[in-house]
Amino acid sequence: MKECRIHLSIPRKECLRYYQGQVTKISARTVGGQVIQFPANIIKQFVTTEGLYGEFRIVYGDDHKLVRIDRVR
Q: Are 5 and 56 in contact (CB under 8 A)?
């Protein structure tokens, strides 16, 4: 398995677009500089009333399929 870390800073208004289905994918730059894309629905568990902020670790298999996402900070 492989992993990468990303920092997300998504305000509440933008998170609402994910919940409403207007946005289905999120693009982010990893700490190492690589641009990745993942399904927006995997971050729903971390969204608060302020939005989505923090550092996350994404673990994925050799086939590039998501295994899990964890909040680091």
A: yes
Q: Which residue has the tokens 């690589």?
A: 34
What pLDDT shows up at residue 20? 86
d(CA 65, CA 67): 6
pLDDT of residue 19 exceeding 90, the answer is no
Number of domains in the chain: 1
Supply the range of the domain harboring residue 23: 2-71
CATH number at residue 21: 2.40.50
Strands, E assignment, the chain: 2-11, 25-29, 35-39, 51-60, 66-71
Which 3 state secondary structure label does DSSP give 43?
helix
